[in-house]
Amino acid sequence: MAARAVGLLASLPLCAQRSQVLRPIHRLLSCPRTVAAEIKREEQSSGSVETGSEGRTPKKTFSEVQKERREQAQRTVLIHCPNKISVKKFLKYLSQHGPINNHFFYESFGLYAVVEFCQKESVTSLQNGTRTPSMGTEAAIPFRSRVFNLKTKNPSNPTSEQSRVQCSIHAPPSSKKLLELLCYAESIDDQLNTLLKELQLTEENTKLRYLTCSLIEDIAAAYFLDCTVRPFGSSVNSFGKLGCDLDMFLDLDEIGKFSANKTSGNFLMEFQVKNVPSERMATQKILSVIGECLDHFGPGCVGVQKILNARCPLVRFSHQASGFQCDLTTNNRIALKSSELLYIYGALDSRVRALVFSIRCWARAHSLTSSIPGSWITNFSLTMMVIFFLQRRSPPILPTLDSLKTLADAEDKCVIEGHNCTFVRDLNKIKPSGNTETLELLLKEFFEYFGNFAFNKNSINIRQGREQNKPESSPLHIQNPFETSLNISKNVSQSQLQKFVELARESAWILNQEDKDRPSSSRSQPWGLAALLLPSVVNSASLAKRVRKKPASERIKSLLESIKSSGPENATSTNGKRTVSTQA
Ligand code: GTP
Ligand code: MG
Questions:
Q1: Ligand 2 geometric centre to CA of 421 (Å)
Q2: pLDDT confidence bin for 530, thresholds 50/70/90
């Protein structure tokens, strides 16, 4: 089928092969099987859970999405381009190697193009037609990756067709822009949905994440043939925000499984391997060597740090071309399962992601979360708190993990390192909730609920969906859903928890006050969710007192003034990328 399509394309006049205007025709002729999915994906709101829409289309499972995206990434290349190029000529030049299914440009230390071919063979063809640069005084390591540099043969003589190309955006909007958008929303529900739309990963950003994993996999495969590098965490669990890190899992378990099943007869062949005293040591050795590889041979992999003595050993690095901060782990299969579970929760009800994004953003705005590890709460823990809260509604908006386990069939069975990680993976088998509460109510109730939660004696437990006695004395106890004896928020200090509680109470109070005195005519002042995202100027000790004293409208006004006086925009720029105070 694909070969026939190539033939058809080759017989078209060149002008018809290349233009962006003709991209849909090009696609229809070139990649028949992927077209429908592609068009549908583009129509969907970007970054949303890829589950198929409203009921009629069967929802895709997490592994189906991963498989599809992975295969797509393997046919894709990353090209560093001159700042001004003719897109038409560029695409025509590349289509010598085969039909192109999709492309986009973005900026990160220069202009990059992500080009997805229809067939994997086109990538090999491009690699075969590419030279290793001669570096003058320096020596190049001849590593043949899928990251290329495009040079123009005559840079001093640009043609009129060479112009700045349109780039897709991979950074969240500035705080100022976000606040403006929220102020002009119709309702608090609208505000939460706007925030989700603005901050969620775009289709292009998601593609770039899978591509980056695929590029790292190429490097790891030099040692471990047939290994897989899979994204996990917020890049894939549907709660990722533009700018979030890229968590990767080097999966070595699949190696050899397939061929081992095939052996027949009286003999069993095994690879001769080296042994080390423990699984942990094996993980450390593997990550150490991959870290070296990334450092020495990985194009654009910079700042490689081997953090091998952590509870979960990892290699951290920046992938310059994509702009992602990457954490590579191995032997971390439970985290992959957690990502799948969160993906399911995110897909079950459209209110879940809107609420999680808002709470994460609220927490970041008040420095309750941070990008550096410490005694503060993590985004992962916050997501668990929202899920738990939604399980506690009447009727519940989300099912408990135990009930998802009850719905599982034999194929869903999953035990990792002795921990039962079984739950139903087919979203279509889970009954939607009958709860119709608005996002506004849920937001308010979330703050009320956790502003008054008995953290001193109770633990949060999404497996059973009810409070339980705390098994240990950490200030905040959120049971790890799979390794049930562990607390995912063990790091959180009493003072951080106290700050969370006070801010939650304050936010509930602001929302309640606003019901009473929100000026309906003026949308230029922060209100609703926007008011909650303003950095709190009060310190936690005097918080309660001040809240009682000042009317909400006055407080919001003074907060706004304080922001204005602290600078024109609460955003800084690093490496040409925007960073905002609301960044998670
Ligand atoms: P971001 O803050 O957007 O990166 O969210 P994230 O969910 O990706 O969090 P993070 O990068 O810190 O961790 C990646 C994944 O590792 C999470 O999604 C979880 O699956 C897992 N994880 C993180 N922290 C913990 C923890 O304390 N315990 C367990 N069991 N898993 C964790
Ligand atoms: Mg992450």
A1: 21
A2: very high
